Amino acid sequence: MRRSLRLRGDAALMLVLSATLGLLLYAQRDGGAPTTSAPRTPGKAARRPSPVPRAIQAPDAGAAPLAYEGDTPAPPTPTGPFDFGRYLSAKDQRHFPLLINQPHKCRGDGAPGGRPDLLIAVKSVAADFERRQAVRQTWGAEGRVQGALVRRVFLLGVPRVAGMDKADTEEEGMRAHWRALLRAESRAYEDILLWAFDDTFFNLTLKEIHFLAWASAFCPDVRFVFKGDADVFVHVGNLLEFLAPRDPTEDLLAGDVIVQARPIRARDSKYYIPEAVYGLPVYPAYAGGGGFVLSGATLHRLAGACAQVELFPIDDVFLGMCLQRLQLTPEPHPAFRTFGISRPSAAPHLRTFDPCFYRELVLVHGLSAADIWLMWGLLHGPRGPACSHPRPAAAGPFRWRP
Ligand SMILES: *[C@@H]1O[C@H](CO)[C@@H](O)[C@H](O)[C@H]1NC(C)=O
């Protein structure tokens, strides 16, 4: 009875959040260009009076547009040429207040189990409510998985809502609306971390250092941390199996490791890095930011190291620099596919939808909310996927180390 009431409450809240989000997105689409998608053609970005206050004050469910036309928004990507001068001059400002915290996330607070075995931290942007819902209810669900206690947080910055031509007061209004929305979401799901920096691609490094500092302070006893994007599918069971024999008090950072990557020197590339910013011919080894796992011990050491490394605009390379400072080599793991599945023999259109691939993987990158739901359903359906080859047997029955 209480459960069904709770479920009804959840559903109602989700409806309200979705509708408000839809209105906000609609308003934003007419307003300034969102920072997290490709720049729009100038012709279309005609100036219009901002529809924001109207949309908020008169929510008309019947007229509410669909929040998403076809798909969830892409994760932050660079938007046009990067202003290195500004970046360098602002680089020393690297401490931003936490606007929404989850101080009890890793405290047992009477709940059985106490400290989490695995903390899942997912980079997200405010507008991506739909993917957060997918993650919450599929692979990112909190609770016990194969005996391990799993907890989850989403990492957000302040959405850059207004274009250059917007009045400050309007921008403030937008920000206030977003903050209210995220506060409601935080009350409902207790998994939102919001920091006061702009949520842009080149600020993902700020997200990285703020998260490491947060986890180190608020989850000091966590055994392992998974950090990744919202557009991934993680096979948490396989991840836990991989972690089971590992000692959380020893160093570990595993993922899709990229070695000998060269900085892009072509000026027109979105990832262009001038030699003045990074002079060496190759980057240190780093784990693809789509998803990687680290031990509690490494979490604390990395939080300390990253606090001392100069900010670098590409977040996963930046983490590689912190690792290098610790003289710690990231461990390549073939089951982390941060660039999606690439198996030459598979038909391209089948790749992402074959649960038999997923069954053996830890992580796949580049999925929409719908993909995540679909894959979860296929993997956890009543019959499970019928795969032609047997699942590789784990060495003995799985047991989480006490
Ligand atoms: C990062 O966030 C800060 C604080 O909101 C902002 O001033 C800065 O422009 C952002 N930097 C980038 C590169 O987006």
H/I helix tally: 12
Average pLDDT taken over every residue: 76
Instruction: Based on the coordinates given, report the CATH architecture of the domain at 95-162 and 169-335.
Output: Alpha-Beta Complex
Poorly predicted spans: 29-70, 339-352, 392-402
Q: Give the H and E element order.
A: HHHEEHEEHEHEEHEEHHEEHHEH
Q: What molecules are bound to this protein? A: 2-acetamido-2-deoxy-beta-D-glucopyranose
Structure summary, number of beta strands: 12
What is the CATH top level name of the domain at 95-162 and 169-335? Alpha Beta
Q: Please give the share of residues in helix.
A: 25-40%
**Terminal residue distance:** 35 Å
The fold-level CATH name of the domain at 95-162 and 169-335 is Spore Coat Polysaccharide Biosynthesis Protein SpsA, Chain A
Strand percentage lies at 15-25%
Class by helix and strand content? alpha/beta
| Molecular shape | globular
Radius of gyration: 21 Å
EC number: 2.4.1.-
Family: Belongs to the glycosyltransferase 31 family.
Main location: Golgi
Organism: Trichechus manatus latirostris (Florida manatee)
Task: List the defining traits of the structure above.
single chain, 402 residues, alpha/beta, Spore Coat Polysaccharide Biosynthesis Protein SpsA, Chain A, nine-stranded mixed sheet, three-stranded mixed sheet, 12 strands, globular, disordered C terminus, binds 2-acetamido-2-deoxy-beta-D-glucopyranose
Could you explain the architecture of this structure?
The protein is α/β, with parallel strands linked by helices. The protein has a domain of 235 residues: Spore Coat Polysaccharide Biosynthesis Protein SpsA, Chain A. It is built from 12 helices and 12 strands. The strands form 2 sheets. Strands 1, 2, 3, 4, 5, 6, 8, 9 and 10 form a 9-stranded mixed sheet that branches. Helix 1 runs antiparallel to helix 5, helix 4 runs parallel beside helix 12 and helix 6 packs across helix 8. The C terminus is likely disordered. The site of 2-acetamido-2-deoxy-beta-D-glucopyranose has 7 residues, from helix 3 and strand 5.
